[in-house]
User: Fold this.
Amino acid sequence: MMIATLRETGNETRVAITPHTAKQYIKSGFNVAVEENAGCAAGFANEAYEQIGARIIKDRSSLLKQTNILLCLNEPIPKDLEGLPQNTLIIGHFDNTPEEPLIPWCQKKQITLLSMNLIPRISRAQSMDSLSSQANLAGYKAVLEAVSAFHRVVPMMMTAAGMIQPAKVLVLGAGVAGLQAIATAKRLGAIVYAFDVRRAAKEQVESLGAEFVEVNQDQDSEIQGGYASESSEEYKQKQAELIDDFAKRADIVISTALIPGRKAPVLVYKKTVEQMKPGSVIVDLATSRGGNCELSERDKIIKHGEVTLIGLSNLAGLVPATASELYANNLVHLINLLSTKPSEIHFNPDDEIIQQAVLCHQGNYLPFQVAKENNHA
Ligand code: NAD
Assistant:
């Protein structure tokens, strides 16, 4: 059985199989094939794969014809997958959008699609949780990007030439990326404030030594899975005033707020940006979902007055070796779950991870979720 990966398209730098994970698959009885140069942008040369027994294949269509499991980072377009055999399993970060071409194409071709975006956030699935492994790196890199664009230094310094005040960092959204941003900014010596609509975030923020900023109201927006829900209009109004107040005093704002299945909430308005200090920096991690700042633009670094707005959507891709290693490890854990016998794949319909993450199988859309409902009927 052949596990393979392609060279990702666009400006993606990460790769889904590293030489280290290729070795693990081979040890488990799989064959491994990697499209030529797929690992180069992450620092993994073709020779590094070949040395451990993986095949480097130049001709994409020849690679696809031999593939049984295709590991991806981002959603491929069907025309780039022509030639994949029936019953192939494709794993990657796919949205549950049955109106987009990939899901109908996989249904028609009887190809199985498993989305890393849909792996449940449960303890048992932590080792497969690539949303967390990548968001953690994005939070770290967001702070480094902000700091290098910032006109001043971050920590307090007492020098003979004078005393330097520490920078103030405001983190909006204290999920996985936000908590890592807080930890990174603290390590650099910043004074950190953080805001989240979930009450549970307060304790986590405080345990990292940051101050939790709260809207003084009886609302907790946490829903199942630890995610946030949409807030009321009254809450949003109070939240906007609070963020406006803190952002004006901050040197760096890192925004990471997301609501599953929706556009990202707008938290930093134009009028706030216009009142921020000259030289301040905003890093908006939510630009792929519309952005948390009214002015940020996806994959662009722009200036509004004297404020720098960084809207890079693939921050984990700026540390491609680490990001690939973690993602590739997430995939190994998932393949281990699926392959009960060496080099064989089995979808246990009673497993919550399979139920939630398999988007289509044998031509059916969300096949195991349906099976679960029927079982309960
Ligand atoms: P996410 O990317 O969906 O959202 C990021 C953060 O934005 C969240 O903390 C959310 O509450 C916050 N947010 C949403 N709207 C906001 C607003 N208007 N203002 C301010 N903040 C707002 O979240 P995530 O990082 O993927 O984490 C989601 C949840 O899953 C968290 O509770 C996290 O602790 C939990 N989690 C659990 C596990 C596990 O147990 N295995 C693993 C990872 C994450």
